[in-house]
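seq:
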Amino acid sequence: MRDYSIRAASPDDLDGARAVMLDTVYRDFGTGYVPRWHADVIDPAAAYLASPRHTLLVAVDPHDNGVVATAALDSRGPAHPPNPRHLAERYPSGVTAQLRRVYVRPEHRRRGLAGRLVEELLAFAAGDGGYRAVYLHTDPNVPGAEAFWRSRGKVVHDEREESKGASGVVHFEIPMER
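struct:
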């Protein structure tokens, strides 16, 4: 088993982190890069390194020092639109830690990386002292994503219920302390 290192991203990690993120949005989501959804992917330094209340974590493969997984947190709550108004009101920016970009390269999955990254993000949020809630949304069509998040938090809104079973985003709240 590989002994991955998990750390806060440095400027030297950003190209590798961006590659993991872009590969994920193209391969797993099938959307490709969408500027209004993925601006943080293109400029992760501005999104996650510039503010002390935000972070971008990377998991690094010890064999080649390549970034194989990412996880980020920022203080922006879900925007309305496109998210439902009640979620934007329940999880306002500034006091909501939103988990983002928890992505693992396929060949490194099922090794506990996502769980380790999320635990580090939760510790970061708790240490900040200003967050009241931890929120995220996920695409349930990505294999394993919904089950992963259900094992860590509670569903606060499932868009599939309002669209008669069609594809939709699932929104979660995660306890800050686990």
